[in-house]
Every structure is written in C-alpha cells, then in structure tokens.
Amino acid sequence: MAPADERIPRPSISPGPRRWRAFLAAAFLLPALALTGCAGAGALGGGGDGVQTVTVAIVSNPQMQDAISLVPEFQKTHPNIRLKFVSLSENEARAKITASVSTGGGEFDVVMISNYETPQWAKNGWLTDLQPLADATPGYDPADFLPSVRNALSSDGHLFAVPFYGESSFLMYRKDLFSQAGITMPPNPTWQQVRDMAAKLNDPAQSRAGICLRGKPGWGEVLAPLDTVINTFGGSWFDMNWNGQLNSPATTQAVQFYTDLVREYGEPGSASAGFSECATQFGQGNAAMWYDATSAVSVLEDPKESKVAGNVGYVAAPVVNTQHSGWLYSWALAIPKTSEHTDAAWQFMSWMTSKEYMHLVGSTLGWARIPPGSRTSTYQIPEYQQAAAAFLQPTLDAINNADQDHPTATPVPYTGIQFVGIPEFQDLGTRVSQQISATIAGAQTVQESLEQAQKYADTVGETYRQEGNR
Fold it and tell me: What is the 3-state secondary structure (H, E, C) of 248-277?
C-alpha cells in the first residue's frame, strides 16, 4: 500500500528561470565572481597548441581536496587538458556557483552541485544532459550508481549531474566511552535516548562534550541536521496549502529540543560549529557522540587524521515520530550549458566519478578515504569491505532508507529532507538558519527566532499559494 502522503496530489509547481532570477536578485547573489584558483592545480597540463583549460568549481571538503591531490594521475593520460580549480567553502560555493550558472556567466566548465540544485536547474535548461555522454563512455556504467542517488540527480530519467559521493546521516559514538560508562547504544535510538546519553557522558572538566551538533549559520550547515529533527518530531516548513509551519507546536518543540541539547551538552562555541568544526572536535576525542553526515567516516577512520579511528560506532539517525530520519545528499559534478569545453570537462568528470578512481583513492590514500555512497561496486571491493566494516552497512542502510519525496510525518507539498526543493530555499534557509544560530548563541529565545522565521516562510509560501490559485 502506498504511503498516505503519496496518494495526495501535490500542487504543480515548476520553478523556472524567472523565479530563480527574481530570487537571486532579491537575495543579492549577483556580485562579480572573483575566481580564486587552487594554487598548483591551475598550472597542471602546461600550455601550447591544442590545450584546453577546464575551470572546475568545487567545495573545499576533504574528499574534494583528495581529488585535487590525485589530479597528476589524470594528467598522465590527458596532457592536453589543463585544470583550474576554484576551491570554495560550502556557503561561498553555493552562492557563486548559483549566481554564475543561473545568469549564464560562463566562468565554470564543471560545477559541484547537489541533488537540491540538479533537478531544478535541469528543468530550467541550465545544465548539459550527461546521459548520452555517460552511456557512450566505455566502462563508466551509470547504472552502477546507487538508485536513490542516481534518481535524485536525474530529470525525466536522464542524469544531469554525476555523483562524486552520496551521503545520508547517522549517529556516531565513541565505543570506548560507552563501554566505560556501562551504556549500550541501541541500533535505532530515539532523540530522547540520545539526550539522556549525552547528559551522562558530558564532562566539561575533561573538555569532552556529550554530543557535537552543528550550530553554524547556513542552510547547508545547522539546518541540515536540524531539519531531520523537525521532520521526525512531526514538524515541517509548509503544510499542503503552502502555509508556513515554522512556529507550529511540533516545529517549536523540535527546535527547542535541539537548542537545549547543544547548549547543555554540546561543544563549546556551538553557534559557529559546522561540519568541519565538529569533525575536528569528534576526531580529536572531544565529544562522545556526533550526529552528522555518513561521509564523515572518510575523516574519522583515517588514523593520520583522527584520534578515534577504529573506535567509533555507527547507528541510524535518531527518531521520534517517524521510522527513519536520515537525510539524502550528494555532492555531484555537472556541466553548465555555457561551457565551451564540454568534451574535456566530461573527460575529467568521468575520471573523478569512475570505478577506477575509487581504486586509485584506496590504493593511494587509504581504503577508508574512498568517496562513499555513490557506486554499488564500491561496496564490493574486498579491501574497502575490510576497511569499512564498522560503517559500510549503516551507510548503505541510511542512504537506502532516505526518501526525499516523503520527508515528514505529515503530507507536504515539497520534496527534500534537509532542504525544501524550491529555489527560494537558498535565501529562506539562510535567513532562518541565522535566527537558529542566534538562538543557540543565547542572543534570543526559540520563540523569538521562530516568529521571525515564520514571517520569512509566509512570504515565500504566499507566492506558491497565488500560483496554486491561478
């Protein structure tokens, strides 16, 4: 039997280029782009006749930095392709890539985007259809991509971005600390259980937090974990009529819970802590638990980077009123329609997302460093199975159980688990995240932040209600 919300028709909302451009202008995302290339990588490939320069905009996460370090291997077989990397922080990358692609700026030949942007930008005609290129590349095997990730990066059955890695979210915990405290972590914990465990393991005298949670402003920072908490508490961003729900009782309860948890038992400076900061805190042994992306394992299980490698347990994302609550996300590579180097761009992209690349990372940098969650075949590599024994199945289960078409306990008119799949969400989410971060910092109450957040949501919802009534 289909889920209840699957049987309720959604408003036919197709946000086109006009909506995107109006949103971007309102959000002040149209500054001149200052390209800050990654030193060294831009010089690879040399000059001379027949050399094409491919400019690649990527997010400066650890897995992407690994890719840049391995580019000399690509250059050995592609001497006529010169790569110029523009490596940006997550918030900066979102703004600059969005501004460039939406306005046809043409600064980039390859852009790193996600399953948030891909379906919308594909429908707007801003991205190159990659399906013919993928199908025509010997051994590339696009059918090998995990189904949930492949579908999230497709439009009308065609890939418009190819996944570099895919992720959901789960709860990570220190097995040694739990054993010493006589605490058993359940395989499917509730948030109430997590709070109780955080209280027992919080030890400021030892500079150890009970749990690390993001509090940094940004729709891809604090709202990523917080939205999954809102969803499982029974809250949402909008109801089926596009009325804002950010000050509803369920949403208020969820935000109050999250805020209290991180303020009472979280890391110091939590209002400015994002993924990278929590990765450092947990990896250095300064937290007993961490709820975040499944891709964190690439850092946590590397003995060169982490003091807790080999001593971390992984369980499902905590829940309250839903069976599952993990998010679904993929950092992926796409080619803007404005690129004049489509073939060269594809040669690089197909290398960076290939089966061969996974083996290259494993044999060169360590098998736990392989970008996770993109290819089924990755999970069949014996060396990776051994290195990933602690987190392989929890990662696959989290990704396979994530359903971005039915993210909440009640029906909603949008898709997306840790985001709302509408173009306005970049600005809306950023504004709301600033309110939440201020609350975590103690500058205002939950009620004050959500009253302001509700005004933002109502402004966006009004445009959809008007379109639905036409």
Answer: CHHHHHHHHHHHHHHHHHCCCCHHHCCHHH
> Domain boundary at 389, 412, 435, which?
389
Long-range contact pairs involving 25-28 (C-beta distance under 8 Å, separation at least 24): 26/427, 27/426, 27/427, 27/430
Tens of pLDDT, residues 318-349: 999 999 999 999 999 999 999 999 999 999 99
List strand residue ranges (DSSP E) for 114-192, in order.
Answer: 154-155, 158-159, 162-167, 169-174
What single-letter DSSP state applies at residue 469?
A: T
Contacts 24+ apart (CB under 8 A), 445-451: 446/252, 446/255, 446/256, 446/259, 447/247, 447/252, 449/255, 450/246, 450/247, 450/251, 450/252, 450/255, 451/247
| Rounded distance between C-alpha atoms, residue 152 and residue 206, angstroms | 43
Convert the pLDDT of each residue in 38-70 to its tens digit.
433 443 444 456 899 999 999 988 889 999 999
For residue 190, is it within any domain? yes
Q: Read off the pLDDT of each residue in 279-291 and give the average, rounded to a whole number.
A: 97
* Domain finish residue from 369, 389, 409: 389
Instruction: Tell whether 21 is covered by a domain.
Output: no
Q: For the chain, what is the domain count?
A: 2
Range of the domain at 318: 169-326+401-468
Same structural domain for residues 149 and 195? Answer: no
- If you search the block for the tokens 């006749």, which residue do you land on? 49
